[in-house]
Specification:
The structure holds two protein chains of two kinds. By secondary structure, chain A is mainly β. Chain A has four helices and 33 strands. Chain B has a single domain, classed as Glutaredoxin (3-Layer(aba) Sandwich). In chain B, helix 2 runs parallel beside helix 5.
C-alpha cells in the first residue's frame, strides 16, 4: 500500500480514537455497517476464442466498505485491492489501498462532508461523480462539500475537489454550485395547487494549469486554465403527467476529446410522460454537441469525467440483446426515445388470471448536422471547428432499436416472456471500427420460460437467437437455471456463434455456474468460456475480453 | 490498519450491554413527482416495511417485484407491511421508472436513488437487495438475490417480526 493512501486513514483512525478518549458516549451509541465483495478468476489460455495467456494464472479484485454512523455524524472508508486487476479492468488499478474515506455531519439545515464523495447536479449533464465497482468506474471527488437547506423546498450545494484517477487524483480542480427549488414547498405550503413545479440550476468550473501546445506543426494554442459550464432545469408534474427538461452549456474547452477546438458545447434533454394504473407512456429527446467535460483536458476514455451524458436507449439484460449496446457520443448526437407500457387487465380474455404485460420501446440516434467552414475538409484544431444547426438531425445513423416484450403468467406454475428486437448498430462510430465497416443490422428473438415445481423449486429456460449478416453473424444462446429458493442456484448455458462467416470460428461458449445465498451473503462459482463483449451496468459500459476459466464471486453486507 | 479500525469499533460496540439494531440512514432520495425525501423518515406508522433495491436493467429485480405484486394486496391485508421499491436507475432511465411502474400496475411506493447515495449508505453491492425494517425504523433482516419462491421467505420474516419471534437465519 502506498504511503499517500495510509495518511488519510491514519488521520481518520486518530480522529475516531481521539474522540473516543474525550467522549466515550459518542462512540457508545455508534453503529458500524459495511460490505465486501471479491471476484477472482483462474485463467486458461484459449487461442481459438482470443483468450490470451495470463502470466499470473489468477487475478482478483476485492473491496470492503466500512461505514460508521452515530446520530448526525457519519464516517466511512473503502479498502480496495486488485492483485492483479482482472482482465477487462484498467491495469492502472494494480495494487491495494484506501482510496475512499470521508467524514460528514449534519443538522436540520447543514450537511458538511470532507474527504471523498459522490454527487450529482440535476441529471448530471454538468456534474456527476459516481462509482460502479463492477465496471471499475470511479470518478469520486476528493475535497469538501456543503449542503444547505435554509427553508423547506430549497437545497443549495457547494463543492470543491479533484477527481479520482486510479490511485491518484486528476490534475484539474472542480468547483460547483447547485440550487434546487421546489416551488410548491415555498409558495403553496397548504398544498392547494395540484401541479408540482421544481426548478434548479448549476454552475461548474474546472481549473487546470494553463498549457500551450503546438498543433498542425505551426500554430501555438493557449489552452484556457478555467472552463465554465452551467445548466438550468425544471420538472413539472400533475396527476399522471410529468414534464422535465435540462439545458446545459459549456464554454471554450479545447481538449483531446474534441480535437482541441474552442467551440462552446451544449446539451438539451426534454422528457414528457403520462401514466395511470396499467398504462405508461414516455417520450424523450436529447441533443448533445461537444459536451465531453473532463478534469484533465488530455485524457480520453471513461476517466476523469466531470459530467454524465445519459444514453437515450433501453438497457437490455438478455445476453444476446446486450451484445450491441449504445454508448453516448459526447462530441455530438441527436437522440429520440419512446416507450409504452401496458398491462392487459387481470380477468380479461387476453389478460387471463394474472394479466399480460406489454412493453414497446423505440430509440433512434443520429449524428448532429455539422458544417465545416469554407475551405476546410476536416475539423481544424485551434479554431471553432464547425457550426451546427440546433434542430437539424445529421445524416449518419448511429443507433436504432425497436423492441417489444410480452410477459404472461399461465396459472400459478408457468410464466413466459417473449421479446423481439430489431437493432441497427453503427459499429464504426460506437466501437471505433474502421470507417468503412458496415453497420450491424440484427434481429433478436428471446423466449424466457419459468416453471415452478413447488414453492421452492423452479426451472428457468432461456432461448435466444440473434440473426445478422454483419460482424460475427448469427448466434444462439441457451440457458437453463434451476433454483431452490431462497438459497441455491445452478446454471448451464451455451452461446454458439453458428453463423460466423468464417467457418473455423463457429465457436461454442459453454458455462456452468452455481451459487449459494444466505441472507445478504452470496457465493457463486462458474466455469467456462466468456465471449468478448461489452458489459453494461446502469449507465456505464466496459469491454470484457474473451476468457476461459474458473471464476468465483463472494459478496456480503452487514 | 483496517484491523485497528475494526478493533476500535468492536471495543465501542462492546460497551453496549445489549445488541441494538441499525437504524435507517439519513440520505436524500426523490419521489416520482420530484419531492425530496429523507430516508431516515421513511415510515409505515409503526408497522413493518420492506425496502427493495432494484433497477429497470435488473431482470431478477423485476421478477421479484412482479411476483410480489401478484400477492401484495394479501400481504398488506394480513400483515400491514408496506413495500418501498428504491430504483437505483441513473438519469439514463430514471424518468422511465414512473411510467414502467404504473404500466405494470405495481402499487409500491417508489423512490429514485439516481446517484446511489441510499444504496451506498445501506451497503448494497448487488441488486436485488431487500431489507426488512421494523416499526421503529430499524433494519432487522436483509437478503440479496431473488429466485422463485424467495418471496415466501420474505413474508415469513414479516410474520415472525409481527409475532415478535427471532429472525435469526438458519
Amino acid at each position: 500500500m502506498n504511503l499517500k493512501s495510509i495518511i488519510p486513514v491514519l488521520v481518520f483512525v486518530c480522529c475516531i480514537t481521539g474522540l473516543s478518549v474525550r467522549a466515550q458516549d459518542f462512540l457508545a451509541g455508534g453503529k458500524v455497517t459495511g460490505n465486501f465483495q471479491l471476484d477472482a478468476q483462474v485463467y486458461k489460455a484459449d487461442s481459438a476464442i482470443g483468450a490470451g495467456e495470463v502470466e499470473e494464472k489468477m487475478l482478483m479484485n476485492a473491496f470492503a466498505n466500512l461505514l460508521y454512523s452515530n446520530g448526525n455524524f457519519n464516517a466511512g472508508m473503502r479498502f480496495e485491492t486488485y492483485l492483479n486487476p482482472m482482465l477487462g479492468f484498467d491495469p492502472r488499478y494494480e495494487g491495494s489501498g484506501v482510496p475512499y474515506w470521508f467524514g460528514s455531519w449534519k443538522n436540520d439545515q447543514f450537511e458538511i462532508t470532507v474527504g471523498n464523495f459522490y454527487e450529482q447536479f440535476g441529471s448530471g449533464m454538468v456534474l456527476r461523480s459516481y462509482e460502479e465497482r463492477n465496471l471499475g468506474y470511479d470518478n469520486a471527488l476528493k475535497g469538501a462539500r456543503v449542503k444547505f437547506s435554509p427553508v423547506a423546498g430549497v437545497t443549495l450545494k457547494g463543492l470543491i475537489g479533484t477527481q479520482r484517477f486510479f490511485w491518484d487524483q486528476g490534475p484539474g480542480i472542480v468547483r460547483g454550485l447547485d440550487g434546487d427549488f421546489a416551488l410548491n414547498d415555498l409558495f403553496d405550503k397548504a398544498g392547494k395547487c395540484k401541479t408540482r413545479v421544481t426548478v434548479g440550476g448549476s454552475f461548474v468550473s474546472k481549473y487546470q494549469a494553463l498549457e500551450e501546445i503546438i498543433v498542425n506543426d505551426t500554430s501555438l494554442l493557449k489552452l484556457p486554465a478555467n472552463v465554465a459550464a452551467w445548466s438550468a432545469r425544471f420538472n413539472l408534474s400533475r396527476g399522471g403527467f410529468n414534464l422535465d427538461g435540462e439545458f446545459a452549456s459549456k464554454m471554450n474547452d479545447p481538449s483531446n476529446m474534441n480535437k482541441f477546438i474552442y467551440k462552446n458545447g451544449h446539451s438539451l434533454l426534454l422528457q414528457a410522460s403520462y401514466s395511470q394504473k396499467g398504462f405508461g407512456i414516455i417520450a424523450s429527446a436529447k441533443r448533445t454537441d461537444n459536451m465531453s467535460f473532463k478534469s484533465n483536458r488530455n485524457e480520453r476514455g471513461s476517466v476523469l469525467d466531470i459530467n454524465y451524458l445519459p444514453a437515450l436507449t433501453r438497457q437490455h439484460t438478455y445476453s444476446l440483446a446486450a451484445m450491441y449496446p449504445y454508448a453516448t457520443q459526447p462530441n455530438g448526437e441527436m437522440a429520440f426515445q419512446g416507450q409504452v407500457n401496458y398491462k392487459i387487465k387481470k380477468g380479461s380474455r387476453l389478460g387471463g388470471k394474472y394479466g399480460t404485460d406489454i412493453a414497446l420501446n423505440f430509440s433512434r440516434i443520429t449524428s448532429i448536422e455539422n458544417e465545416l467552414p469554407e475551405g476546410t475538409t476536416t475539423i481544424v484544431s485551434g479554431t471553432d471547428g464547425y457550426t451546427s444547426s440546433f434542430l437539424k438531425f445529421g445524416d449518419e445513423l448511429y443507433f436504432q432499436d425497436f423492441n417489444l416484450e410480452v410477459q404472461h403468467k399461465f396459472g400459478s406454475k408457468f410464466k413466459l416472456l417473449v421479446s423481439y428486437l430489431n437493432l441497427n448498430y453503427n459499429i464504426a462510430v460506437i466501437e471505433g471500427h474502421p470507417e468503412d465497416s458496415v453497420p450491424v443490422k440484427a434481429h433478436i428473438l428471446i423466449a424466457d420460460m419459468t416453471y415452478k415445481f413447488d414453492q421452492k423449486n423452479a426451472l428457468k429456460i432461456e432461448l435466444q437467437h440473434l440473426g445478422t449478416k454483419q460482424d460475427e453473424g448469427d448466434w444462439l444462446h441457451f440457458l437453463a437455471e434451476y433454483t431452490v429458493a431462497p438459497k441455491w442456484f445452478f446454471t448451464v448455458s451455451d452461446q454458439y456463434n453458428y453463423g460466423n462467416p468464417d467457418k473455423d470460428r463457429r465457436y461454442h461458449y459453454p458455462t456452468v455456474a452455481a451459487g449459494y445465498t444466505a441472507g445478504s451473503s452470496r457465493v457463486s462459482l462458474s466455469y467456462g468460456k466468456q465471449r468478448e463483449g461489452i458489459l453494461c451496468v446502469g449507465g456505464v459500459c466496459r469491454p470484457v475480453p474473451a476468457s476461459n476459466g474458473f471464476a468465483v464471486t463472494i459478496t456480503s453486507s452487514f | 490498519m483496517l484491523l485497528s479500525f475494526i478493533l476500535l469499533i468492536a471495543a465501542a460496540q462492546a460497551q453496549e450491554p445489549e445488541k441494538s439494531l441499525s437504524k435507517l440512514p439519513s440520505v436524500t432520495v426523490k419521489s416520482l413527482d420530484g419531492k425530496v425525501i429523507n430516508t431516515a423518515e421513511l415510515t409505515n406508522n409503526g408497522k413493518p416495511m420492506i425496502i427493495s433495491f432494484w433497477a429497470l436493467w435488473c431482470k431478477p429485480c423485476i421478477n421479484e417485484l412482479t411476483t410480489i405484486a401478484d400477492v401484495y394486496d394479501e400481504w398488506v391485508e394480513e400483515t400491514g407491511v408496506k413495500l418501498i421499491a428504491v430504483s437505483i436507475d441513473d438519469s439514463r432511465s430514471s424518468s422511465k421508472v414512473g411510467p414502467t411502474v404504473n404500466g405494470k400496475g405495481w402499487e409500491y411506493e417508489v423512490l429514485l436513488d439516481a446517484n446511489g447515495d441510499f444504496k451506498r449508505a445501506m451497503n448494497v453491492n448487488m441488486i436485488p437487495h431487500t431489507f426488512l425494517i421494523n416499526g421503529k425504523g430499524e433494519i432487522v433482516w436483509q437478503h440479496t438475490s431473488f429466485s422463485e419462491g424467495s418471496e415466501l421467505q420474505l413474508i415469513d420474516m414479516v410474520r415472525k417480526l409481527n409475532a415478535g419471534e427471532s429472525l435469526e437465519q438458519h
